[in-house]
Design a protein that fits this description.
This protein is of the alpha+beta class and 482 residues long. Among the domains are: 82-143 and 219-309, D-Amino Acid Oxidase, Chain A, domain 2 (2-Layer Sandwich), CATH 3.30.9.10; 375-473. 32% of the residues lie in helices and 22% in strands. The protein has 13 helices and 22 strands. Strands 1, 2, 9, 10, 11, 12, 19 and 20 form an eight-stranded mixed β-sheet that branches. The mean pLDDT is 96.
């Protein structure tokens, strides 16, 4: 019997688990995949939004600005890659000026610090690579870039270290409301909890229907991106937006915390599991991006990806107790700026649970800080000292990103051990460089197998079933001939 069961291991679910771990609360996170952060959280713009876009007075506006504030300190405490580089919303016409001024006044009302409108001369001094057609921009110094999946993973690891539980491969297939608790049917067996928090992303409406709640519907919406090599990473210094439209914040161009350049997304309604990139979608992204930054060298693209966002039938974030089922809470319709808002949403939800009867006694084992060794960022002296402590730091596995065997083994023995090649990639970046794992992939696979004590054939690329090794080539050929 748990006090709280959280459904979904994305940014919001992991933030919830972390916030609950501050207290003596017996909490469990149920994730249908073999790792946390493998849905929308791993496939987004990696931006910490300032908070000028949401309508004043909404949950979205409140949690965006508060989340921006929380995340800066959270990244320091949990050693998450983060850089407050600021954002610019470009204007290309007098019609755009009306939009930029509207965003400025919204931001002031929402409490966004440091906002101002910069005119063309100053704008092009700030960003020389911009198109000459860019006439002015809204400058938001509190905008930042982040490693989005690390935000989720770090909080989940710290929560587990502090006594919380994560159940992977535990898809929820049914929920029964009992007199004093819920019984959740999962792929790992039954789980009972006094309270349930539905943070299942694009599947939140399906989970809600399991308790008879049909108050909202989710439309999955796909956004496609380019990731360009580090040769393009310094083309711009800030996050470059265009004026937002009804379908989203538009195509952005931004540095990443890993030194790359990210460009995207478009917006297209799709099925929940359709995270495929398309030629037409990427063409649209490219055409829009060069309006802002015309000299992007797309020949240096090293990866394309797509993420699926949860667009609900309600305009605002849904952060509330279900009106159809007491004790069942929703974190739903969390589109952009959902990543930024997730820590603030979690704190509000914890207080809602407290109001519903959950006791919040401080947890003496709460993990407030963690540190991660990143060999690439160490000085020569620090590298030598690290190798003296552990010779595995002396073996470079990923040449593109300078990732050592020691870092991979460290990740394997952290509280939430990864089970896949991409799980390691999300924790310490092997495979994120120009060759995209062409050199280091097999070695990472072998290390995982060794540390878990399993055959290499059982190590998937990412989610369960994404097998890398299907059999020996000669045996496969002979079987096909027979």
């Amino acid at each position: 019997m748990f006090d709280v069961a959280i459904i979904g291991g994305g940014a919001c679910g992991c933030s919830m688990l972390y916030e609950l771990s501050r207290y003596k609360v017996n909490a469990v996170l149920l994730e249908k995949e073999n790792d946390v952060s493998v849905g929308t959280t791993k496939a987004n713009s990696a931006i910490v939004h300032a908070g000028y876009d949401p309508e004043p007075g909404t949950v979205m506006a409140r949690c965006n600005v508060e989340g921006n504030r929380i995340i800066e300190q959270l990244c320091k405490d949990l050693d998450i890659l983060y850089d407050k580089i600021g954002s610019l919303v470009l204007g290309f016409s007098e019609e755009d000026r009306k939009t930029v001024e509207k965003l400025y006044h919204r931001g002031i009302e929402n409490g966004v610090p440091g906002l101002r409108i910069v005119e063309k001369e100053e704008l092009h001094q700030m960003e020389p690579a911009l198109s000459d057609d860019a006439l002015f921009a809204l400058w938001a110094p509190s905008g930042a870039i982040i490693n989005p999946w690390e935000l989720a993973i770090a909080q989940a690891e710290a929560a587990v270290d502090g006594g919380a539980k994560v159940m992977l491969d535990a898809e929820v297939t049914g929920i029964k409301k009992n007199a004093d608790c819920f019984t959740l049917q999962t792929a790992q067996g039954e789980v009972q909890a006094r309270f349930v928090v539905n943070a299942a992303g694009v599947y939140t409406d399906q989970i809600a229907k399991m308790v008879g709640d049909k108050s909202f519907t989710i439309t999955p919406n796909r956004g496609e991106y380019f990731v360009l090599d580090t040769t393009q990473g310094k083309l711009v210094k800030h996050i470059i937006f265009q004026c937002p439209t009804k379908v989203g914040k538009g195509v952005l161009v931004s540095p990443t915390v890993h030194g790359n350049l990210i460009v995207g997304p478009n917006a297209e309604d799709v099925d929940a599991d359709d995270a495929d990139t398309t030629a037409s979608g990427l063409h649209a992204v490219r055409q829009a991006a060069v309006r802002s930054v015309p000299n992007i060298n797309f020949r240096d693209s090293i990866r394309n990806f797509a993420g699926v966002r949860a667009i609900s039938t309600q305009d605002d974030f849904i952060v509330e107790e279900s009106k159809a089922c007491k004790g069942f809470f929703h974190i739903a319709g969390i589109k952009s700026p959902g990543l930024t808002s997730s820590p603030a949403i979690a704190r509000e939800m914890v207080q809602m649970l407290h109001g519903a009867g959950l006791e919040l006694e401080p947890n003496p084992n709460f993990v407030a800080k963690r540190r991660v060794l990143r060999f690439k960022s160490l000085s020569a002296k620090e590298r030598g000292e690290a190798i003296m402590r552990n010779p595995l730091y002396g073996t470079i596995v990923c040449r593109c990103e300078t990732v050592t065997e020691g870092e991979i083994v460290d990740a394997m023995h952290r509280p939430l051990a990864p089970r896949s090649v991409d799980g390691i990639k999300r924790r310490c970046t092997p495979g994120m460089g120009r060759c995209q794992g062409g050199f280091c992939g097999p070695r990472v696979q072998a290390i995982i197998a060794r540390e878990l004590g399993i055959p290499e054939s059982e190590v998937p690329l990412d989610r369960a079933g994404m097998n890398i090794i299907l059999g020996r080539t000669k045996e496969q050929k002979e079987a096909a001939e027979q």
